[in-house]
Every structure is written in C-alpha cells, then in structure tokens.
Amino acid sequence: MSMTYRGTVALITGASAGLGIEFARQWAERGADVVLVARRLDRLEELARDLEKRHGIRATPIAADLALPGAGAALHAELEARGIRIQTLINNAGFGSHGPFLEQDPAQIDRMIQLNVAAVAGLTRAFLPDLAADGRGALVTLASTAAYQPTPAMAAYGATKAFVLSLTEAIAFETRASSLRVLAVSPGPTSTEFFDVVGSRDAAVGRMSTPGQVVSTARRALERGTTPPSVVAGIGNRLSALASGIAPRRLALAVAGRALKA
Fold first, then answer.
1. Which position among 53, 148, 157, 261 bears the catalytic label?
2. In the chain, what's the furthest Cα-to-Cα distance?
3. How confident is the model over 121-152, as pLDDT tens digits?
4. Over the stretch 164-192, which tens digit does the pLDDT of each residue have?
5. What is the rounded distance in angstroms from the CA atom of residue 22 to the CA atom of residue 33?
6. Which of 14, 132, 207, 254 sits 20 to 30 Å CA-CA off 63?
C-alpha cells in the first residue's frame, strides 16, 4: 500500500550521517516535515536546506547530545515549547566498537550504553504518548543483526541492540490496539560512517547494504497492511538471524565469535 506522510512530522536522531540522512530524505520525499537531531549542527543545517529546497517541506535542525542523561525529556520539552508536535520518531542514533570487552575504554562503553540504550528508552518514553494518541505515524528503532545472538568482540554493542529489539517488540504488542505502527529494523553491515567509528572492518560480517536499501526495507514494512514488530534488512541477514534463533546457543556464540574474529 503506497502511503504519503504529508501532514506529519518525523523526528530523526543521528540525522547528520548515514542512515539518518537517508531516513530524512525518504520521509521528506513522501511529504513529511522533519526534525533533524545530532551533535553536528553544520551538517544538519546543510541537510535541512537541501530537503526544504527539493521537497518543499519544513526541516528543523537541532543540535543535541543524546548521550546525556535526560536528553529525551529535554528534547520533547524543547519541541513542545516551539509548538512542534511529532507523529513519527525514528531512533537512529547509536554507535559501536570492536575488540575484547576487557580492552574496551570504560568511558566509551558507558557512552555507548547511554546512547544506544538509555537515549532510545528515554526518547521513546517521552514521545510515545503523543505518537500513540495521534496514531498517524510510527515508532521506528534501529536494532541490528547483532541483536540476534551474543557478539564476541562486539559484546557491549550487541547487547545494546538486543535491548533495542526486545524493547521495541514489546512496545509493538502493548500498543497493538492503537493505529500507531511500531517497528524495529535490524540492518547488517551498511555503507555508512559506522565502521569508521568502530575502527575495524572485522565487524562487517555479511554482504554490505546501502542506506537506501535499509531504509526502504523499513518503509515497506511500515506500509504493509499489518506492520510486523521487527524486520531484518537483506535476505542473507534474515536467514542468518533465523539460523541463530534455531541453533543451540553455544553454537550460535561460536559462529559469531569466528565471524567477528574474536
């Protein structure tokens, strides 16, 4: 079913690069106004100008560090003060790291958990009442194929994405009586700045996707007659996630450890 998002406002976190930019483009193409949130204001302003020029929508850039405690509630209050009401929340911001957990920088682990877990939960809790009451939009979170089994060499990252997947699927069930569409999207390796931040290509297991492919997968899932609570982007990734769920836990762990060069 083809859908237009005109008349709605989508809040997209991590909108200064990669999947965040692509979510903003695809939602703007379909008529949604967008609120673009990330730390790098210059990138957000450039993207906002481009989207407004190309699609005639309103794009609002907001610089915010979502890894700070209480960032979700603070962002909700700021938008409320500006008179901006959100119908769609796309929790895209996050990052990963690669290497033995014992050797990871504790400060980096703390920041990863704050951004990938606490910020997602905080933003979702802050905006969910508005989303559910309006019902025209969606709640979208970015999980990962790393969510489907333990990930040696990416232990903390995989655990954060398992949290995101579980949280989103549970919320999808809890809000099933409303018209709100709730979806967790699990990409595999994607051509973004993610691996530059990770600092290793060893984390790129499987066929590389483009941001366009991942976001289109999410959008098609949302536009089904009945939106699934979660979707894995890419046929190969879907098969791998299915196999991880069927295989004994110890076997899935060993396979992931070899693949990630743990």
1. 157
2. 53
3. 999 999 999 999 999 999 999 999 999 999 99
4. 999 999 999 999 999 999 999 999 888 76
5. 14
6. 132
